[in-house]
Amino acid sequence: MDVLREKGITDEQVLAAMNNIPRHFFLDSAFDEIAYEDRAFPISQGQTISQPYTVAYQTQLLQVRPYDKILEIGTGSIYQATVLAEMGVKVFTIERQKLLFEKTRQYVFKHKYPNLKFFFGDGYEGLPTYAPFDKVIITAAAPFIPPKLIAQLKPGGVMVIPVDEGEHQRMLRITRHIDGTTSEEAFKNFSFVPMLSGRNG
Ligand code: SAH
Question: What 8-state DSSP symbol labels residue 200?
Answer without folding.
Answer: B
